[in-house]
């Protein structure tokens, strides 16, 4: 056992990159849930985003266009969810599960001819002198653009929810859709936009895996990240900054686990792998005593009766 | 402009017609998908829906429908009780795993003892394992008001890791040359959940599923508790005024669904699957949620939905093998089926109105 | 109705309803555990299937079902293939072992081939590849080329197959470089590209400049490429898109020769139950081209080692070898027997760390 081989600077730097997919997906889902909609189809939207982004990036040679394609792919799939839950007023749990099932199948069909293809590489962002700052430069300023875009999205969501009128309306819709409707807000339109945003974020999160973190396409490659993103939203008690914290914590446990193994520490991998979920449950329990709780209308179907 | 208008009463005709419409629509759109993939659409649909039931080898596939459908029905039946009351247990997969581990652990603890009471004991422990696992979200909800959807979902991943730890460690077959996985219970007569009539596919899990359906039917239509469940789902506040104890209802619904999921896992590990392995769970717990909704949360409906779902799995595999359809196409096909069912369900509770929306 | 059903069931158990009927085409079924697009294990088995089709053309018909869960689903799929008249069925995952034996008992006239298992019957053969032979060559190149003397190894699950590979690679790395040290990370998954990528990055950050992987995705290759001076080896498939650097060579699962030979045996009526465990010699384990990033003399040594293993002149597990705990395992010149190798659950002397339990 030799713990000195673990370089905390590199560990933290790796963390920022490793946490980006769940961060993106969870931030999107947070907005969806704040609007009062529970979309369990994150995994499906992520994998469709992963292949859509991959296809666009390979065919155009541009990873940046790939991410736009991924956002579009995730959003298009989420339209299906919009139709089911907002137009046909179907149950959200079942619709979300169906979306994941459908997305996994669809992505596999789309990706049939992309197995073994190497995508264009996304360069790390050149931040000039910032990257040369000792310690902090390596941790904070040596990543690809998507890491920063992910952080900007968190910032934007936080500011948007907190300070803008649109954010206020969105939260009102999520807390009590009947009251929001009575006040004249377009509940369905707002929820539709939120779901599309969630789909786009999930799609980009998926593409981060297929274009940067891995990068390759294989069927089912998101391997359950979408479910972790769902857990993360709850863990964060529907607050953007806590999503960021949670994403680093969730990603950090995996990174730490791998680092400890590499250092020769005998750790029970399975039990460590369970820990984020158990921690989430504990957080849920603690939160229940707290005022910050789930949006009031979460998961409930809205139909304007008059 | 099309508008939805809530019906005063859910339409019975529509409740019966929409599932058929959905299956029909899935056949049409699924057929289109298969055509796009370069397969004969009619033949593909026939292979999926017709062959397992009436094809040359139906004598084999019909019993297999029971094997594949039984765990789905058993789990979905329990889930439907909760869903009706607005209690969302979506962690049946975890309860299924824990039931299987508990059941198998009992058998393996007594191996190779030959005794009649081993299998009944496994049934009890399997049910108990699932029950206790579901009690976690149940008690947390009652005590602290935590959201059971999320807690039960989180516990699925905990259970999966536990499964992997068990198959690599404690329950590993000591004569298995170091490979992960437990002893095969099919080769341990006292613990084997064998077919009751050979070749019929009818094992104790199928019997349990049928009992669960009958039990749930009686409960929902004849019993006070069933009434409480229905009222709570439809009008939670009225239920409280009507004297329903919501905490007890939560515990009952989660406990019952957990127990049934645990039983399903136990019957599966002792019978068709035979052993605990890393990949023992194949998603029955999640598919059962779909089955519950397909069946409109009604016992008879769930029975039919379980059979339909099992049919698409079995027929799907046949279509893969005979027509070379990729597995992903079958997945998309199943997704479509669910979407159409969910989307058309709106017609049961709402009427479509054409014309401009009136100003309220 | 009941009577016909009974008859049919009887026919099933007697194996009459099988491919025993005269057919002009030999039908070969494949049961796959993952999707054919996984780019690794199942992908290579499917390549073997395509090779059978190419070899025999019209005389053969192949069918496959992908992503078949181990357990009752696999049993049903195998039965279905047998009912549909398959003459030969390849079941390509360890978890299909008991289902294969069960189905084979019902269809005595259908031949079954189970990959990586240890249970056989009159109509069930087993086959597996001696991947550890390829690991020896990887170990040699790794030991010769590492500058940091740290070799990273990504394992899937701690099972004999993987442990064997680690031991073989270590023994041969140590031979050329006594200072070499192995860092092993268990991913606890067969398939999770993101996790594999993370594991590779961690190993690189902890100083490894050679990454060996026992997981199938190219994720570690991409991680190594990004890091720069790190070499890797393709796993399962050649992964040539990462040559010449970081991928300097590869172990290729080449099932085609075996699948063709067994299909031929069924056609000729010479099929018999066997236990095949083939390595480099018969071509089941392919060594991908060693790229120019490897110094010429190392490449020559590696190729010489390959030839010696292929000819049977040299066994990668040849004594003197001790177990990790210091106890004697193989005496001077003694080679490991297949039984010990099949169930290998210990590290050889020099490897640090414990095998997780």
Automatic annotation (TrEMBL), chain A:
It is found in: Cell membrane. GO terms for cellular component: plasma membrane. Keywords: Cell membrane, Membrane, Transmembrane, Transmembrane helix. Coiled coil: none annotated. Its main location: membrane. GO terms for molecular function: transmembrane transporter activity. It is a multi-pass membrane protein. The chain crosses the membrane at residues 6-25, 37-58, 64-84, 96-115, 135-161, 193-214, 220-238, 245-265, 271-289. This is ABC transporter permease. It comes from Pseudosulfitobacter pseudonitzschiae. The lineage of its organism: Bacteria, Pseudomonadati, Pseudomonadota, Alphaproteobacteria, Rhodobacterales.
TrEMBL record, chain B:
InterPro entries: ABC_transp_permease (IPR001851). The chain crosses the membrane at residues 20-37, 65-83, 95-111, 117-137, 149-171, 202-220, 249-267, 273-294, 301-319, 325-344. One of its GO terms (cellular component) is plasma membrane. It is a multi-pass membrane protein. Keywords: Cell membrane, Membrane, Transmembrane, Transmembrane helix. It holds the Pfam family BPD_transp_2. One of its GO terms (molecular function) is transmembrane transporter activity. Its main location: membrane. It is found in: Cell membrane. This is ABC transporter permease. It comes from Pseudosulfitobacter pseudonitzschiae.
